[in-house]
Design brief:
Largest sheet: none
Radius of gyration: 35 Å
Shape: globular
Structural class: mainly alpha
Number of helices: 43
Number of strands: 0
Distance between the termini: 112 Å
CATH class of one domain: Mainly Alpha
């Protein structure tokens, strides 16, 4: 066949079109992309619209319409972090744009920046006191009593204009709930439903109000009504699931979730919730299987990966958990929940500093995340920084004056910082908030002990026990006080009295056994420990105490059996694994000891005693690289421990790094003058550093020690060679 010939006319048309396209000006291209963006935006195709608006900004970075529409598009997609800078620019360009201002205010509410939200809404209300959305922002942002009253006054002033709208009465109900007036809130929500009987928000708020009042039947009816109206929008279905789960009716919750169809907008959310329910029930494998199905449809689902990370934490698969949370943060570095759980994972490994860093960042992202603040305060206490814990808890109490956990941590930090008088006042305030809770009473007793008022402390402990006879903490404090005064007989009688009052329990028998053991009444102690395990065969401390008692009696076989029983109950019990390793070391079986230490470090990679002891074994076995790595970890975790410094110093000496080794071992020898092994190491290093007289002193301490130390002969020989 011949080639197809184009007519001259056709060629002219094509050439003109081509030349016209080439001749399109940058501004024409901007207008074309803007027009397409507006078209996609109007169709709800926000992702497509964003591409077009980004093209507009390539031609004109200050195009106000593209900037505004990008803010709106991200906002409508729920990506508030990306929406924020565009909305901020849009408002700077046009401060009177109410729509932009309200969207910014909503973002501030979500971020917990309530004052900023109030300021924006207040600016709108100055010009239009009847603007319902602005009034609603004021209602949501109100947290102090004066702010609640101010917001309520604004609604009352706008009543003639707005009372016909359901949203008006819903916001009034929210303010009443904040003022703890449930009766008034209920009436206002019912009023809202007379305006709009299908108001999802009113039905859901009413359901939660009934939950707060303990009226489960009415709450259930409201949740079901909301689901019947619209199961997806507003989260009605998931609210009903939460209601059933809170009542431990997991089967009913699962039935609701299974009604979700793959085409429903909340399908992935319901699958995640189904996974969470399985997790709560302890069915971790089932939970993981459901998540695997979620990831087939949405591989990067952030909430799903957060759940999987939490499951790994429960299974003590800490490395996998850390990878999950880090993956979430790679996708969204501002995910506060991911940082919170990552902190818990690091804490589980013993990496306290990294855990604190993650919590600090979580609180920067979500300042009102009290769980993160509480955990950070606890870690600050663990790392001997009570001042930081005090500062953070005082801030929480200022914002939440009835937070018991904040008072508990504040008082504990004050005691840790040697401020018992301040702690006493803190715990008394805690009592005023929770007058029927025995914990503040017990803690008041602890503070009274610290200020030297032991008689008053004993009264508080007795009062706590009268409030809750099965609460063993105040009894333990009473017993400890009696023992401290040398009256072990009184301590024993007080425990027996409590057993007759509260009934027998594993904890009470354990306390009885511990007191018998202190009195060197080992037969009675063994009987009581055994009785504790008869009452509760999962009570690990009793297994451990028996094991330690048998070990002290040089019956390592019975001791080993008890420690292994403890591990059968709790495979992560560090004390039992450490004791098992020690038994194997005493028997000369380094391989089995090494195995125990490795198991501990698999769960807690920075656990100092296991890292230090394993480093020593590995150094003896010739694995100097890993020995140095573990010894360094131990030193970082416990920088002032002389045994840790000695281990690291001796390993460095074996590698020929004698100057650094001498610095470490010299410090250890000064702290442990009676330890023959450390003194021998100091003698060897002193010789290496050209200090024979000092070496002589260390070797003499080795020889003079009564211990049957294996290197004593070497010390004698070294002494004979020193001139």
């Amino acid at each position: 066949m011949g080639r197809v010939k184009l007519s001259v006319v056709m060629l002219t048309i094509l050439a003109s079109a081509f030349l016209g396209a080439c001749a399109e000006t940058p501004d024409a291209k901007r207008v074309r992309h803007l027009s397409r963006g507006d078209e996609y935006f109007g169709q709800g195709r926000y992702k497509d619209a964003l591409i077009e608006y980004q093209n507009v900004l390539r031609f004109n970075a200050s195009d106000s319409r593209a900037i505004e529409r990008m803010g709106f598009a991200y906002h409508n997609l729920g990506d508030f972090r990306r929406a924020y800078p565009f909305l901020l620019k849009a408002r700077q360009a046009n401060p009177d744009d109410v729509n932009v201002t309200m969207k910014l205010a909503a973002i501030y509410l979500l971020a917990g920046k309530l004052d900023e939200a109030r300021e924006l809404a207040g600016g709108i209300l100055e010009k239009d006191p009847n603007h319902l959305e602005a009034l609603q922002v004021m209602a949501v942002a109100a947290r102090r009593q004066n702010e609640i009253a101010e917001a309520a006054a604004g609604f009352e002033a706008a009543r003639p204009v707005l009372e016909a709208r359901a949203g008006y009465h819903i916001s009034l109900a929210e303010l009443s709930l904040k003022a703890r007036d449930l009766t008034k809130a209920e009436a206002q929500l019912k009023e809202a439903l007379t305006r709009d009987e299908k108001s999802m928000q009113a039905h859901l708020m009413l359901a939660n109000l009934y939950r707060a009042k303990g009226d489960r039947d009415s709450a259930l009816a409201e949740f079901k009504t909301a689901v019947a109206i619209e199961p997806v929008v507003g989260g009605a279905r998931l609210n009903l699931v939460d209601f059933h789960a809170a009542n431990r009716d997991f089967n009913a919750a699962k039935e609701v979730l299974k009604s979700s169809k793959e085409s429903d907008g909340d399908y992935l959310a319901t699958r995640r919730r189904l996974s969470e329910l399985a997790f709560i029930e302890g069915k971790t494998d089932e939970s993981l299987a459901i998540l695997a199905d979620v990831f087939k449809k949405a591989p990067t689902d952030v909430e799903g990966h957060l759940i999987r990370g939490r499951i790994y934490l429960t299974k003590r698969q800490t490395t996998e958990a850390i990878q999950e949370f880090q993956g979430v943060l790679k996708a969204d570095s501002k995910q506060a929940q991911a940082r919170y759980w990552l902190a818990i994972a690091y804490h589980q490994t013993g990496n306290i500093q990294q855990a604190k860093t993650e919590l600090t960042q979580a609180l920067e992202l979500a300042p009102r995340m009290t769980d993160a603040a509480f955990l950070l305060a606890q870690m600050n206490l663990e790392s001997a920084n009570p001042a930081a814990a005090i500062e953070s808890m005082e801030k929480i109490i200022a914002a939440q004056p009835k937070s018991l956990q904040a008072y508990l941590l504040l008082g504990t930090a004050q005691l840790s910082r040697q401020q018992p008088a301040a702690a006493l006042q803190t715990f008394k305030k805690m009592q005023a908030i929770a007058s029927k809770d025995p914990r503040p009473v017990h803690l008041t007793g602890i503070a009274l002990q610290a200020v030297g008022q032991k008689a008053e402390a004993a009264k508080e402990f007795e009062r706590a026990l009268s409030m809750k006879p099965t609460f063993t903490d105040p009894l333990t404090a009473l017993v400890g006080q009696a023992i401290g005064e040398g009256n072990t007989g009184l301590a024993l009688e007080r425990i027996k009295k409590q057993i007759s009052t509260a009934g027998n329990s594993a904890r009470l028998q354990f306390l009885l056994a511990s007191t018998h053991q202190l009195r060197k009444e080992n037969a009675q102690a063994e009987t009581a420990y055994t009785k504790a395990l008869e009452l509760d065969n999962t009570f690990v401390p009793a297994y451990v105490a028996l094991g330690q008692m048998y070990l002290a009696a040089q019956d390592d076989q019975k001791a080993l059996a008890k420690f292994e029983q403890a591990l059968s109950v709790n495979s992560n019990d560090v004390v039992s694994r450490m004791m098992i390793a020690q038994i194997h070391l005493n028997r000369g079986d380094r391989d089995k000891a090494k195995e125990s230490y490795e198991q501990i470090l698999a769960a807690k990679p920075r656990f100092v005693p296991a890292a230090n002891n394993l480093a020593w074994i590995l150094a003896q076995n010739g694995d100097k690289e890993r020995a140095l790595q573990l010894a360094t970890i131990a030193k970082e975790g416990s920088p002032d421990d002389p045994f840790v410094s000695d281990t690291l110093g001796w390993i460095l000496h074996q590698r020929g790094v004698n100057e650094r080794a001498w610095t470490l071992i010299k410090e250890s020898a000064a702290k442990q003058p009676g330890n023959p092994e450390i003194q021998y190491h100091a003698g060897v290093l002193a010789q290496k550093m050209g200090q024979p007289e000092l070496a002589k002193q260390h070797f003499q301490r080795v020889v003079a020690s009564g211990n049957n130390y294996s290197n004593k002969d070497k010390a004698v020989k070294a002494l004979s060679e020193i001139k």
